[in-house]
Write a structure and sequence with these properties.
It is a single chain. The protein is mainly alpha-helical. It is built from 11 helices and no strands. It starts with 36 loop residues before the first helix and ends with a helix.
């Protein structure tokens, strides 16, 4: 995600308060009650400034989802993210049933004489074409992370695209799992990364903290993903939508 530009995200701040004002509430007193955005931002700030000793990735992630309206609301509003995930699943179905040449041609991707990097760059733009809304940008970022799994596979096969015709279901499912975890993580960072930019000067330290949240979210998604079995051989869009919602519920602590 990085910290190239401040994105303050959602807030419930009184416009008369100074920008560096922090809510005094360090922990939500009613664990299952509503959470204010300022509480989440305040606790994220304290987590960062304390070097990670105050609060936890689990608690802050839980607060974030509650502040965003809860898991059900987040799931229902993530139409662009689910649509992009479904497109990724359609790509894998095409590779499995028709092969890479026909699948790429159907998508309008010219691959003859093109480098693997060019093909994958075009593929990302096809699967996640939007770039205007926050969710569009997050979906594109998650698509990049998911396809990095596939790119790594091609790289290990001498950069020959023909290997895609023999790509295992395991790699495809791994990419779909990465998509969900990266989407949730990137969405959260877009709303809260201003805390990193305000309180951390060292980019490496900032990335380290961000990685802690990504690892926690990824491990949660992995557990839930493994219970669904082979997503590629299911109705991918429906399965991803259901799985995404369940992962949010787990992260929120409602199940």
């Amino acid at each position: 995600m990085g910290t190239s530009s401040i994105y303050n995200g959602k807030n419930d701040r009184n416009p008369l308060l100074p920008d560096d004002y922090e809510d005094n509430q360090s922990e939500d007193p009613i664990q299952n009650g509503p959470i204010k955005w300022e509480t989440v931002k305040s606790n994220m700030s304290k987590f960062i400034k304390s070097g990670g000793s105050r609060g936890s990735t689990k608690h802050i992630t839980k607060q974030y989802i509650k502040a965003a309206g809860g898991s059900k609301r987040m799931a229902s509003q993530s139409t662009s993210g689910i649509r992009t995930g479904g497109s990724l699943g359609t790509l894998f179905n095409g590779l499995r049933t028709e092969g890479y040449a026909k699948t790429f041609s159907n998508l309008g991707i010219e691959f003859v004489g093109k480098s693997v990097q060019e093909v994958f760059s075009h593929l990302i733009d096809i699967l996640a074409p939007g770039s205007t809304t926050k969710e569009d940008i997050v979906a594109k970022e998650a698509t990049k992370e998911a396809l990095s799994k596939v790119y790594g596979y091609v790289e290990n096969n001498n950069m020959n695209l023909e290997c895609l015709d023999k790509m295992s279901f395991e790699i495809m499912n791994e990419a779909l799992c990465e998509y969900i975890s990266s989407f949730i993580w990137a969405l959260m960072m877009k709303d809260l990364e201003s805390r990193f930019e305000i309180y951390i000067d060292d980019p490496k330290q900032s990335l380290s903290f961000e990685q802690e949240f990504k690892d926690y979210i990824s491990s949660t998604v992995r557990v839930e993903f493994d219970t669904k079995g082979d997503i590629v051989n299911q109705d991918v869009k429906s399965s991803l939508s259901e799985l995404y919602g369940r992962c949010l519920e787990v992260l929120e602590g409602t199940i």
